[in-house]
Amino acid sequence: MSPPSVRNESGAPARGADSDRQPAGTPGPAAGRARVACLLIPDLPLQAALRAEPEQAGRPLVVTTGPGPRAEILSVSREAARGGVQPGQSLRQARAVLPDLEVRIASPVLERAAGAALLDVALSLSPRAETAQRSGGVFAAEGAVLLDATGITALHESESRFASILHARAARAGLHGFVALAASRGLARLAARQLAYDARSGDDSDHTARSTIAPETTRIVAPGRELAFLGPLPVDLLDPDDETAEALTRFGIHRIRDLLGLPRRDLAARVGPGILSLIARARGEEIEPPIEAPRGNALEEGIDLESPLANLEPLTFVLRGLVSRMTERLSLRALGCGELRLSLRFEGGGHDERRIALASPTGDERIVLRLLRQALESKPPAAAIDGVTLVCEGLPLRREQLDLFRPRGPDPNRLDQTLAELGSICGSERVGSPALLDDHRPDAFALQPFTGRTTGRTSPAARRSQGNSGRADGVSSLTRPRHSPTDESPSGSRSAARLTLRAVRPPARAEVRIEGGRPTFLRSAVSRGEIVEIAGPWRTTGFWWSETSHFAADHYDAQISDGSVVRLRFDWRRNEWQVDGLYD
Amino acid sequence: MPPRPPGNRPGAEALAFPETDSAVRLRAPSGPIEARAGDGALKSLLSDLGAQIRRGRGLAHGASESPACCPTGITSLDARLGGGLPRGRLSELCGGPSSGRTSLATTLLAETLARGTLAAWIDPADAFDPASAAACLAGRSARDGGGEQREQGGRPCGEGSESGDREGSQALRRLLWVRARSVAEALRSAEKILQTEGFELVVLDLAPAQGQGQGGPRASGNALREASWLRLARLAARGQSALVVLSQTPQTGSRAELVLEMQRRRTRFSGPPALLDALEATAVLRRHRTRPVGYEIPLSLDVDPEAADLDPLRSPAPAPDVAPLRAQ
Hints:
By secondary structure, chain A is an alpha+beta fold. Helices cover 30% and strands 27% of the residues of chain A.
């Protein structure tokens, strides 16, 4: 694509520095005055379709309202327009003119995502931006965002430079549009709309004259020159309603200059009061609230599939496109992908919602795609899919801060990926950190999500010992346990090592012989033999009010003649002996 | 020809210049040396020097790459093992039921978590007991806290235990517990965790679950192959993680840097009333790549009375009105 050319309102080439470039440190021409930039996409349905299918660029493509031959064409590509196809035609008419026409049905999901991407582009350059209200009539396919560009010359070389950057970023995001800067929202949009109008007219003339001049893509309306700029523009750019437009045509008012030259009161008396708002728009006198910073950082990408997908492989291909566009939008706003919400719409109705939590925000497309794939592999969709929506919470990227006293943990992004893979291998409910419950039930624990955070408080002695754990001899005076002498002497005093239980889940059923009120023989899958020594019982009971959770058992520690030391219990509810652990 | 210095080999006599040192000799113009000594002598000399240089480089290389260790916290064992279980290597703890292998692994785990690092426990037998690990951590923290307080002038006894419990619960959050459903899943999980490169300790518990018999996981399938151990050992070396395999009989063969066999000696009960007091075991060093083997280290695995408060089965006193037991 040829580089965008910049012109000022008088039509002369602006060339940045010549027109409005200011010496460093001095305020620009718009210093102290409100300036608004408008990024306008004249054919949003087409651009949204091309954004999802970039391989269709350069081909005759139209976007229609529906699938049938009578469907109205909403938007046409430049190649299709050169072939004679125009918006407003029916698909049958268009095919008669251009048989090898590519047709896409307008997708609200894609248009919404493209509009949001447009806003992301704007937010990458200004903290205050908003999506402009959609127009009707001939401008119904238009999508636009408005940015607060007040004082922008303090950051950028000039306003025209800023406009060029904005245009280039939008083009990188797959949205080719026009940028204009002016003193108000309406004026900026009008200027951008006029650029689009000129480009379309240029295309039409190109079709006959084969001109090689690149169309203008940016325009700066300098402060105080608004009326000079607006005067020669066609009055239709003000987007009058049908009745007003007809009246203006009847009176021979074709240019904004003609409109502004007439007395307002008389005009309102003849055309109607609606003309006053049109005049105010033309003069830039509309009352506009300031542009505010948008709230929330939820990013949405989606696609409506023309044919349902039943396999994971093609679905992964679709997800790759969504994730790629999403990470590109995230990078524009210097954000990372937080929690993901994947919504799959099934062919016969119904949908599947999944939440995929990430331990830390990431901007890596491969990681996000891999997590999605893992989630789908661990639980494949129940039916064929004909629509996918992906929503992510944009979060500031976490910069890893190393700690002097703690060892470096794993890379958070890599850890997320590993946890997702482990969940896929073993089941997500079987991977996590153990947590003890405030509960007297035997073997009561919970598995909580593993975050890998190493922010837990460590004891001063532990902190001191970290630097010594890697010594070649390994025996540090700082790590030496206080009761070390007892390690080697089994004299009954305290040791550094603690006796640990190996749980038997579920408890193994056992047969026990009782003699004199005491268990004397055990037979189970864990151990078998005479009970040499036994301690207990300890009775635990609880949840007596619940039929399902009630527990009552007597526990014993028993040494068996085969050498094992087991934890034995008699379950009063089941009326059976069980081995629920092995001391090891 | 100058007299030949004593000790010089005949093949190198042409290179001998008594009035100069060896460095000068090596820098001498090559022409005359070659002319007098010939190819054989020079090659012999160079091969000697080359061997020495290689040996020196090897020694230097070995010294710089002596592995860092994960201390077990048991001084006598750490001293014998050269600091603990080596990081970046595969170690194996094996032994029969009630031999103390799990207790030793849990002690190692507690030491690792208490340092603020991450650890993983891969558990195809589903035998890991969080209460035991928490008790071990609490006991370890209380021991450290008590020591700290004694150094600072002392404090009431109860406070150390509470802070130990808190730290123990916090430390468990740094443990990744993978309850794999089979040995194959456990091996794949171990690979993934080691690839992450950030876990200081990875325990792979392959000791058989109840009912699996003496053969353990090896008997349950051919999942454990030599290639798996090779791959896991390489991944452990790359990520500098200590990979510890817990088993009944040695599984890893020559891939293990260290094999420690646990043997049960006796169980101590105290009372009356009778209470399980400790398990006395012996750790036998069966294999070590750099240290002498065959040493036996006696260990006493105690039931910690302070940390036992976390175990609900031990906290209440014996019920006074225990109903008579029924015979099966």
